[in-house]
Structures are given as C-alpha cells and as structure tokens.
Design brief:
It contains seven helices and six strands, in the order E-H-E-H-H-E-H-E-H-E-H-E-H. It has a six-stranded parallel beta sheet with strand order 3-2-1-4-5-6, with helices on both faces. By secondary structure, it is α/β, with parallel strands linked by helices. It has a single domain, classed as Rossmann fold (3-Layer(aba) Sandwich). The protein is globular, with a radius of gyration of 15 Å. 40% of the residues are buried. Bound molecules: magnesium ion and zinc ion. The site of magnesium ion (MG) has 8 residues, from loops.
Length: 187
Amino acid sequence: MKKAIFWDLLGTLGGDSRTLINQEFTFFEEAIPALKKATTHGYLNIIVTNQSHIGHGRITIEEYERALSQLLQQLADNGVQITDVYTCPHTRQEACICKKPKPFLVKEALKKYELESSQCYIIGDSGTNDVMLAHQLQLKSILVLTGEGIRSLTDQRNAWSETSPTHIAENSLDAINKIIGFQIIEQ
Ligand SMILES: [Mg+2]
Ligand SMILES: [Zn+2]
C-alpha cells in the first residue's frame, strides 16, 4: 500500500509568499527532519504549491524552476527524498483547474503513484487552500501554525468555515510526529 504526505511549500516547509521571487527562501529548521521522518515511516513526499507570482510575471517560469531545483538539490544533499513537485503557476483571475484548493493536482498524484487516499495527509499553513483542498478530496489534513497558520485560524477562519483540519500542529515536524503517533495507536 502506497501513501504520501502532500506538503505545501511556502509557510509550511520554509520561506514565505515572497521568498521564491527574491531568491531568499530558507527551509525552517524542522523541515528536513520532518521530511526524512515521513520517508522513514513509508510516506512519499509530494509538494503541491501555488505560485501565482509566475502568472503575475514577478518571476519567470525559468527562474522559478531554477530556484526550485536548487531547493530540491539542497534537500537531496541533506538526504531528503522528494518524489514529485506539482506547481500551479496561474493567477486566480485565470480560473485554472489546478490552483489549490482545487483538487486537480492532488488527484493526478493519487492516480500516478497509486496512493491509498485514506492513508494520505495534506500538511499546510493555509486553511483556505490546503485544508479546503483536503476537505474536497476527503483527505486528512494538518494545519501547521507556521507561515499563515495562525491567521488561518483567526482573521481568515470564516473563509473556510465549512471544514476543519483533522489536526493542528506547531510545525512540520510536530505534524509528522502526530501522524506517526496515530499510526501506532491504529495498529
Ligand atoms: Mg503556504
Ligand atoms: Zn493553475
């Protein structure tokens, strides 16, 4: 049985909504241990990220791909395995089919990697994007309190009031620890 963690990138694993444009992205210190721990416990790491800066012309697709490949190299150098990265480059105005919270990209990944959806989690810092996406696919979700997480639970909470995250975690590592804790309980 194959299972995956669908990771949000910005605000969840590192950086913020500006950092890929100005090339200042850094991983949060708990991100690398979190990604490694996911692999150790049998999860594929799949990143799903909205990058509307590309659609807005603030960063070109080539610049984005270069920045992304540097990040992936940095992870690989630290022994982290990332199975795939799915990017939506569009602006909201383009009304594309792939921008989170639309489930298109995650659906594609579920099919491509033959994942057991009941065993997968979406981990992100945005209620409106990440938790709403999980809600639509009936996947489990963990909202992290890094990035936009606290704002998601306060100022922005009414924008995704129809659902709740399965769990709330301090950060990416706490999220993985919670998931692993549940596995042990379920066994
Ligand atoms: Mg985010
Ligand atoms: Zn898109």
